[in-house]
Design a protein that fits this description.
The chain has 513 residues and is of the alpha/beta class. Helices cover 39% and strands 21% of the residues. The protein contains 17 helices and 17 strands. It has an eight-stranded parallel β-barrel, surrounded by eight helices. Helix 8 links the parallel strand 7 and strand 8. The chain is globular, with a radius of gyration of 24 Å. The structure holds 3-methyl-2-oxobutanoic acid and zinc ion. The site of zinc ion has 5 residues, from loops.
Length: 513
């Protein structure tokens, strides 16, 4: 009988740990709903004990999601575990994921604990977690660089305490495929009770081998769960990419001989949603979800594909959801058509007020842009101003003047709470002038780490510009995203969206303390 490969998505936890990728509760909930639509088996929703914001996000996701298991990370101590259990309470299917470092380096330098202390803590915390949940995953952090004898001792003990999944992280992305696969196999063969748990792989991409290592862990090591993120989002060089690992297993079923629960037709929508939410742009040549992943530019390839698709194609673009680039709505579309499209795109709006606000923005956009694509709608609902609770700063008007050889000037009107500000400035370019005008009133002192502009839909100049601004202030890094056919307006929106995030009090703590 063919085994099932469990897909554990950690975009909302490990992915979110990427600097600048932190998300609000509503953003996380929206992505969780898309992951449920994608039918991933497990959604790691966050790290409940790390902040009140993450606790609330895990709680909201646990209550909203019915078809995937919702998981919270926890350090191996009673407080973290109790907090995770509390956040997950009431969820249809939930899991607590414990982690504790086991490599000599981490135990000595980071934890300042002896191996015996780590062993005891691993055992006791697993026991504690099992009293609160029947589904407990244990991760020896930096597992791949740990002494195999010690790792065997710890893993045997936590399985005896009831851990149901054992995950072996390559925390620093040091592994190479064959050795990682052998490492997992060796552990499974040496640990007497290994068959009482599901084995999982968790690979970081520092050497660009996260997907290859994960697949080796599955094929050679016998792991039956892969931990991964949409677009490979994650700290440093990221995590194993969900879309790549899933499509590899599906496309090479002849080799892997595994089944998957994932509905791959939602992959592209998930990729777009994560990219638009975090501002982490997907490189055009990224496998499966990059804009060029299925584009055949060379004449020989085009000719071949036209004659028989499989001459140059191993997957079909439409199978992973690439068919969506079509005109969906226009100026004459009504509220019902708009609402229907939101539902088809999986965007759940809680209240009529929210739908009305989004529809007003849609009408405003349709007046200026004749063809509205799915991406435009996604950008529109991504715009912070749709949820007035998050919105302290709001753009009211913007005009700018630029002429070759002259220094550009901008005038910006924006609301800050109940106040209305009018500001003027010059700048190196119209965007610079507009943002300087805003800053002249707010004096946020934030440092800009990133400014990027992208065409949301096709390469044409009729497309909306989507701008991402990343700001840093007092140790916090936030992204603001703004979309508009006018990129200067999109820039001002993105800047104010980032300032809104800095203004909100959602605090975050690094997950791995
Ligand atoms: O990379 C890592 O070690 C982790 C663990 C917390 C599972 O993300
Ligand atoms: Zn990780």
């Amino acid at each position: 009988m063919t085994d099932k490969l469990i897909i554990f998505d950690t975009t909302l936890r490990d992915g979110e740990q990427s600097p600048g990728a932190s998300m609000t509760k509503d953003e996380k909930l929206r992505i969780a709903r898309q992951l449920e639509r994608l039918k991933v088996d497990v959604i790691e929703a966050g790290f409940a004990a790390s902040s009140n914001g993450d606790f609330e996000a895990v709680r909201a996701i646990a209550l909203a999601i019915k078809d995937s298991t919702v998981c919270s990370l926890a350090r191996a101590n009673d407080r973290d575990i109790a907090r995770a259990a509390e956040a997950l309470k009431g969820g249809a299917s939930t899991r607590i994921h414990l982690f504790l470092a086991t490599s000599a380096l981490h135990m000595e330098k980071k934890l300042r604990m002896t191996p015996d202390q780590v062993f005891e803590q691993a055992k006791l915390s697993t026991r504690f977690a099992r009293n609160l949940s029947s589904d407990v995953e244990f991760s020896p952090e930096d597992g791949y660089r740990s002494d195999p004898d010690f790792l065997c001792r710890v893993i045997e003990a936590v399985i005896a305490e009831g851990a149901t999944t054992i995950n072996i992280p390559d925390t620093v992305g040091y592994a190479v495929p064959e050795l990682y696969g052998q490492f997992i196999l060796n552990l499974r063969q040496r640990i007497p009770n290994a068959d009482k748990a599901i084995w999982s792989v968790h690979c970081h991409n520092d050497l660009g081998m996260a997907v290859a290592n994960s697949l080796a862990g599955v094929k050679l090591g016998g792991a039956r769960q892969v931990e991964c993120t949409i677009n490979g989002l994650g700290e440093r060089a990221g995590n194993c990419s969900l879309e790549e690992v899933v499509m590899a297993v599906k496309t090479r079923r002849d080799y892997f001989d595994l089944t998957l629960g994932v509905d791959v037709s939602h992959i592209v929508a998930a990729s777009r949603l994560v990219s638009q939410t975090t501002g982490f742009v997907v490189q055009p040549n990224k496998a499966v979800v990059g804009a060029n992943a299925f584009a055949h530019a060379s004449g020989i390839h085009q000719d071949g594909v036209l004659k028989a698709r499989d001459t140059y194609e191993i997957m079909r673009a439409e199978d992973v959801g690439w068919a969506a680039n079509k005109i969906v709505l226009g100026k004459l579309s009504g509220r019902n058509a708009f609402k229907q499209r939101l539902t088809e795109l999986g965007i759940a709006m809680e209240s009529e007020t929210e739908i009305n606000a989004a529809f007003a923005k849609f009408k405003e956009l349709a007046d200026r842009k004749s063809d509205i694509f799915d991406e435009d709608i996604l950008a529109l609902v991504m715009d912070e101003s749709v949820t007035p609770e998050n919105e302290h700063y709001r753009l009211l008007a913007l005009s700018q003047h630029s002429e070759m050889g002259e220094r550009p000037q901008a005038s910006v009107a924006f609301a800050a709470g109940a106040l209305e500000h009018h500001a003027q400035s010059d700048g190196n370019g119209p965007v610079d002038a507009s943002l300087k005008a805003i800053e002249s009133k707010i004096s946020s002192g934030a440092e800009m780490l990133l400014y990027s502009v992208n065409a949301i839909t096709s390469g044409s100049t009729e497309s909306q510009g989507e701008v991402t601004v990343r700001l840093q202030l007092g140790g916090r890094v936030v992204n603001g995203v703004g979309a508009d056919p006018d990129i200067v307006v999109a820039s001002a929106k993105a800047y104010l969206a980032a300032l809104n995030k800095l203004h909100s009090k959602i605090e975050r703590v690094a997950a791995q303390g």
